[in-house]
Specification:
CATH architecture of the largest domain: Orthogonal Bundle
GO molecular function, one term: protein serine/threonine kinase activity
Subcellular location: Membrane
Mean pLDDT: 78
Oligomer: single chain
Radius of gyration: 24 Å
Protein name: Receptor-like serine/threonine-protein kinase
Keywords: ATP-binding, Kinase, Membrane, Nucleotide-binding, Phosphoprotein, Receptor, Serine/threonine-protein kinase, Transferase, Transmembrane, Transmembrane helix
Helix content: 40-55%
Organism: Morus notabilis
Number of domains: 2
Amino acid sequence: MGNHQVVAFYIAISCIAFVISKIIISVLLYKRWKRKHLVYEDGFSGGKMVMFKSTAMQSLKSNVFLKKTLKLSNKDIIGSGGYGTVYKLMIDESTAFAVKRLNRGTAERDRGFERELEAMGDIKHRNIVTLHGYYTAPHYNLLIYELMPNGSLDAFLHGKGMNKKLLDWPSRYKIALGAARGISYLHHDCIPHIIHRDIKSSNILLDQNMEARVSDFGLATLMEPDKTHVSTFVAGTFGYLAPEYFDTGRATAKGDVYSFGVVLLELLTGKKPTDEEFIEEGTKLVTWVKTVVEHEREEHVVDRNLEDCPLEEINSAFNIATMCLESEPSKRPSMAEVVKLLEQLKTKKVVL
């Protein structure tokens, strides 16, 4: 009986020690979180603002930032989409942010907000838009991003009238490589890995140096390193989605590779994946380009603004896009491999 009491005593002590250690770890993690975040709770609006401590944010006061944020109106809108409205927030003449507003009310919107926070929380990469903080309120949520002064790739390629700007081949190549590096970072370097699920030209933003930044993680899915896919509802943008996604409902890294292939075709052809002429002919950008490239007539699909560009590089870029757009996912390269192929393209060592 004595031995049983000793064993029970040691088990009780071990359990208590385990609980205490967990409490200590939790306290330390919370203190670490507090050191990285500035929190301001506003009693009037019933909301809470959390700002991630960084060089860009260290001189800003949360309450002042919040007051300016709550004054945003329609005249400050710089973009909108299925997952929110984006505003330009001017703090002073030299400091500005992009604020994405997501109205609450549906479970999916709240999940989108949570996904962006989860995916963007600790990411620091030159080809991914930086999340500086967020605000939660009873009726809406806000995400605070760094402002990309040159807007989206979509606006550059497909803008109308005064909004359309010409991009030469060096600029397009730089954008393609930057976007590929950003997606590769999500797929291979983040733990858990991140599948974006909505790679498209409007979600590739351009900073003051025309460097590509991947944005909008409202559909992003986290995937543990030992997994190959995540089962989820089919979502994304028509024209960019991999064909197998409709059949399986499985989000994979190779689905993002396919979407990037479509973006690469946009850069090469200057056409939208759902261009009116394709709809009229009952086809789409991917099918049209594949047919022409198979007959080695790439020059017939290249954007007219790229006619004086090195044909060898253009042809290699078309081949990389075709690899990304393989109908069989296993035949597509990984994004890390796509980055290498694009880097080799400029050094004329690309092997396809």
